[in-house]
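Narrative summary of target 7.
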Amino acid sequence: MTGRGISRKIDSATRAGLLVLAFAAAAVLAVVALAAGSHTLALVGLALAIALAGVAAAYLIVSERRRHEAAEQELTSEARFLESLVETMGSIAGDADVLERTRQEAERLFEARARLLKASERPQRAPAENAIVIPLRAHDEEVGALRLTRDRPFDRDDLVRATVLADFATREHENAQLLEDARVREAERSRLSDQLLTAEQDERRRLANELHDGAVQSLSGVALLLDAGLNSISEGRGEEAQEIIGRALVRHRATIGQLRNLSFNLEPVVLRDQGFAPAVRALTDQIALAHRVRVELDVDAADLLAGKTQAAVYQIIREALDQAVRRGPPGLLMITMRETEDGGIETAITDDAPGERRRRSLDELEERARTLNGVLTVDQGEGSGTTVRVVLPPYATAR
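Modeled conformation, tokenized:
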């Protein structure tokens, strides 16, 4: 019940009490007059008592009826407000900006001026200003506040209703944020899934091309040499057949070496058994011996990476080195890994080989980096030399 209703109830009770007292006084007057032998005064007192009793009864009936009408009107008003509050909650729940929609609906519901405040912001109230501030809290954390001002004062019911509205708006705001976060995560998951499928497809294509251009071509050459050798044997040219078969044997052994290197590059045994640094050292040692290249390594920071991430970074290094050898070969190779200021890992592969890297080869490296959510940049010198940098995010160091 509002303050106005309580005041009306007190006034009605006061009037009823006064009428009862007047009736009691008239009745006492009649009794005293009758005891004193004054029949006229007793009749006047009795008539007055009866009249006052009728007036009191009529007043009680009328006031009770008015009270019921006021209560019915108040309940109707309360029901309408609750309906408006439910409609407001429905409109807030379907809006993109929940807090702004709440501010607009609060102005309509309370016929007041509403303003959204930042967390812990509390403007000073002007003298004689009718204002209330309702905090917007989610899990004991304030996300803002709603300030309402209007010409007439706010009563306790207004405060309760505004608090209910603020609590609902806060929960809806939190749900909207959770839904948006879920949408972002789903979009990121879809993007990563597409990257993974693309990387797998590119890797299969690269392996197919490497097998076709390497081992398959070499084995085809071996088959042709063996056919020529058999033909020489059938025609009685033994020395020529021996020479041809010898060449086929050399090419066959070279093909076995190519396949062994391919298998090693796909999953180096030393990387699995001994770790990242020994695997990179073994890879660069092969290049150094085959092409007389000077190598400088500093890859201790790789110990911060998880095992699968190490394998992916190893493939990037291997591919970058293969591209440098095909362009050169280089005279110097430098591979460094360091931890960045934000906790990520930066890998730099530098060579002094002549010429520029092909766009297609760079695309392959970028695709490998994207599978790790990393960023790849390439710095090419004016005449020769290239530095390939791959920066992995901080969460890549989580084991």
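The mean pLDDT is 79.
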